Amino acid sequence: MNMFGEKMRNYWLPMLLAAICAANVSSCSAGIKSDTNSGAAKVENSEAPIPGEGGTGKGDIDKAIRKIDFKNFAYEPYCAGEETTKITVKNGEYSKETKEEEYTDRFYFNVFDVTYGDVDADNKEEAIILSNCNTGGTGQFTEGFVYTLKAGKPALLTRFEGGDRAYGGLRSAKVENGLLVVERNDVGEAGGACCPEFSVTTKYKWNGKELQTSGAEVRKELYPEEKVSFAKGTSKTTINVTVEDIKRYSLGARAGQTLTVSTNTDNVTVALIEGDANVTEGMNGFSARLKENGKYVIQVQNNAEKPAPAILTIEIK
């Protein structure tokens, strides 16, 4: 090929490739780069950058920490006592039984959630791990860990406090807009250790040394009541509902009336949790002779391992 032909090839080939890419962007995954030595175009394989997730927004987030298997990992939780105890989980769990003279000492630890986000604003993801610990009694003690990578190895950046079930037990943790957002249980005014009534969400910002609270905490009712209404001239209604955990319904009634509640499935149970009445339990429901004027609250609770659809029938007369 003569010199003129060579020059024309070097000029038109890049232009042609660029035109093809512009016409069909979705099918063109190659980048065009000029060779400074010859002036000819080179085609290189390229991948679309992964946008940042829960980070600072300053470019792409380094996600190398996701290669660490935190379900098969060594932890040092505080739940076994005042000092940390080193344990290694396999498939997210660790258990140990020690037989003493008059009893068996039991210890159980599990990782129930792992999420990722840039906690310390270095444009690299950290791993946020939520754990639960039982030392043989009824208590279920939660604790949070934040791991980062140092020289390619996981290192504990910090940890955050949980609690025992309804008393501050951890529900979730994630990174949003550079803040660590932690949701905990709150027992409420009339709850018990088994059964939280509220969640409390706290936001934390990393100050270079530790987590500091950022803004006011948000307290939210977990099971807000839905008011039961009856069509005009009727005293009976049906409600189609899918129950994930607990649903609550309230209604106003008078002393001397009878409230009857039933469901079409044994995957849920119904109970009267507020209001003075003589209650008679029945198959998938109850009947209650009301003793006072005022508000009555019905609770529907899921007994299944997955969300349970149910038809709730409520009658008052």
Biggest sheet: strands side by side, in what order?
A: 5-6-7-8-9
Mean pLDDT: 85
Q: How many individual helices?
A: 1
Give the topology string: H per helix, E per strand. Answer: HEEEEEEEEEEEEEEEEEEEEEEE
How much helical structure, as a percent, in the residues?
under 10%
The shape is elongated
**Biggest sheet layout:** 5 strands, antiparallel
State the end-to-end CA separation: 101 Å
Number of strands: 23
Q: Assign the structural class, choosing from mainly alpha, mainly beta, alpha/beta, alpha+beta, or little secondary structure.
A: mainly beta
Strand residues, percent: over 45%
Rg value: 30 Å
Low-confidence residue ranges: 1-53
Describe this entry's structure for a reader.
The chain has one helix at residues 3-23; strands at 30-34, 41-45, 74-75, 87-88, 93-99, 104-117, 126-134, 141-150, 153-164, 170-176, 179-186, 198-206, 211-213, 218-221, 225-227, 236-243, 246-253, 258-263, 268-274, 277-282, 285-290, 294-302, 308-316. The longest helix has 21 residues, at 3-23. The protein is mainly β. The protein contains one helix and 23 strands.
In short:
The chain contains 1 helix and 23 strands. It has 317 residues and is mainly beta. A 5-stranded antiparallel sheet has the order 5-6-7-8-9, with no helix packed on it. Strands 10, 11, 12, 13 and 14 form a 5-stranded antiparallel sheet that branches. Strands 16-23-18-21-20 form a 5-stranded antiparallel sheet, with no helix packed on it.
